[in-house]
Amino acid sequence: METGMVLVVVCFLAFFSKSLSFQQELTEIKMEGLREEVRNLTQRLQQLNTTLQKEKTGHIMFYAVIRGKSITYNVDTILVFETVIVNRGGLYNQYDGVFVADRKGMYMFSWTVSTSSSNWIVTELVVENQIISTAGVQNSGGGHPSGSMTAFCRMEMGDHAWIRSTGRTSSHVLYSNDNYPQSSFLGLLIYSE
Ligand SMILES: *[C@@H]1O[C@H](CO)[C@@H](O)[C@H](O)[C@H]1NC(C)=O
Ligand SMILES: *[C@@H]1O[C@H](CO)[C@@H](O)[C@H](O)[C@H]1NC(C)=O
């Protein structure tokens, strides 16, 4: 009778210790899974952080004006906004008036042109060989009215963008005051792809 009891207890202990070690093993496996998940998440976080830092330092925008001038353009002439206020990324060239995209993405451009008494100026935004939009004014009265336009456009890396006079008239007169310039061109990267 006593031997029987001992046997039962021994069996129970053996089973209990076995199930305990099985539990420990299970916990260990779960822990390893969690560690791997944390490692994976940390790696992903670092990748996202690197991307974020790149976006920050890679921010691209320019704003340039024409100051104190009255210029007459023929047809198909690039307007050179020679006075740079900001040019982050250095992609706008103030000597030829052309912006060059250094990455594929969505860009925004906006420009304004003013004219003088009884003159016309009609311009267009061109990306490579595509006309994106037009802005201008046909002034039959006095003063210095202006035309303005804002546009979004997708650009490939290396694409060029510029403002040029159209074929609407053979003589476009642009006017801009020195102290308060009325003719300007700006652009910025909205997002890269
Ligand atoms: C961790 O990343 C590896 C490789 O991408 C993947 O095979 C594994 O399933 C991931 N583990 C967890 C727990 O997410
Ligand atoms: C992200 O990167 C910056 C610069 O490399 C670093 O100072 C910062 O601690 C990083 N943040 C995280 C959460 O890793």
TrEMBL record:
Pfam families: C1q (PF00386). Residues 55-193 form the C1q domain. Keywords: Coiled coil, Secreted, Signal. It comes from the Eukaryota. One of its GO terms (cellular component) is extracellular region. Its main location: secreted. It is found in: Secreted. Residues 1-21 form the signal peptide. InterPro entries: C1q_dom, Cerebellin_Synaptic_Org, Tumour_necrosis_fac-like_dom. This is C1q domain-containing protein. It comes from Mytilus galloprovincialis (Mediterranean mussel).
